């Protein structure tokens, strides 16, 4: 079973140690970078880092950015450690994030963008009813109604 826990002093070192395969590094920022981004935006109170657990083991990381004005819950970054991929943890984590967004009761959409060429993420999001609504030079933008 996958659960989400805020990154804290108990799990941050494990989160930092997570990596993706070398061929996938172009698709996601390092977790250290993500935690630095979280620190930079801490005063806004709208960016939240989560360790993704399978039972009691940290297997991945998610960075969430919420926009109360636009009623949007955004999966800013999501990664599963290369040693843990292919076990359904990514899908389970997104489903947990969807449930978390619904439970908060103030978001009408959930968004997840991905770097062009990341076909596994594209297929995963499509399988969970996310639809493409735009793109820029680097990323494709997807969302789904909650």
TrEMBL record:
Coiled coil: none annotated. SUPFAM superfamilies: Acyl-CoA N-acyltransferases (Nat) (SSF55729). GO terms for molecular function: acyltransferase activity, transferring groups other than amino-acyl groups. Residues 2-146 form the N-acetyltransferase domain. It comes from the Bacteria. CDD domains: NAT_SF. Keywords: Transferase. This is N-acetyltransferase. The lineage of its organism: Bacteria, Bacillati, Bacillota, Bacilli, Lactobacillales.
């Amino acid at each position: 079973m996958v659960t989400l826990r805020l990154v804290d002093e108990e799990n941050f070192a494990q989160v930092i140690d997570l990596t993706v395969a070398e061929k996938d590094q172009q698709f996601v920022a390092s977790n250290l970078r993500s935690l630095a981004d979280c620190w930079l935006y801490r005063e806004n109170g709208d960016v939240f880092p989560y360790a993704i657990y399978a039972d009691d083991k940290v297997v991945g990381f998610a960075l969430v950015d919420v926009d109360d004005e636009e009623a949007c819950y955004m999966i800013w970054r999501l990664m599963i450690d290369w040693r843990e991929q292919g076990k359904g943890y990514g899908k389970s984590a997104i489903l947990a994030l969807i449930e978390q967004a619904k439970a908060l009761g103030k978001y009408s959409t959930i968004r997840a963008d991905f770097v062009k060429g990341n076909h596994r993420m594209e297929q995963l999001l499509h399988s969970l009813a996310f639809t493409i609504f735009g793109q820029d030079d680097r990323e494709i933008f997807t969302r789904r109604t909650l």
